[in-house]
Design brief:
alpha+beta, 3 helices, single chain, YaeB-like fold, 87 residues, 5 strands
């Protein structure tokens, strides 16, 4: 599945790249995997419920999630810890 990253999230990713080299590598690997097979088990893809219905999540690692909405392509709009993005 193709995806887009808006400018706000791109800026957040640039900050992560400067401060946490390991995390940015994990993000890159998971996004590459998402492109190849968005249903790969290591992504732990799932649709959210409640106030966040119609939003999907993938796992970057045990605690970091990326959120997106999708139609014909995924539109990633947030990244953070479980508590940060599921507020």
């Amino acid at each position: 599945m193709d995806f887009r990253i808006p400018p706000d999230l791109d800026n957040k990713l640039k900050k992560i790249k400067k401060s946490d080299k390991q995390l940015i590598l994990k993000i890159q690997r998971q996004l590459e995997l998402f492109l190849l097979n968005h249903r790969h088990p290591s992504l732990r893809l799932h649709k959210l419920t409640g106030n966040l219905q119609n939003i999907w999540s993938i796992s970057i690692d045990r605690n970091i999630r990326m959120l997106f909405i999708h139609d014909n392509e995924a539109y990633f709009f947030d990244i953070g810890t479980h508590d940060q993005v599921y507020r």
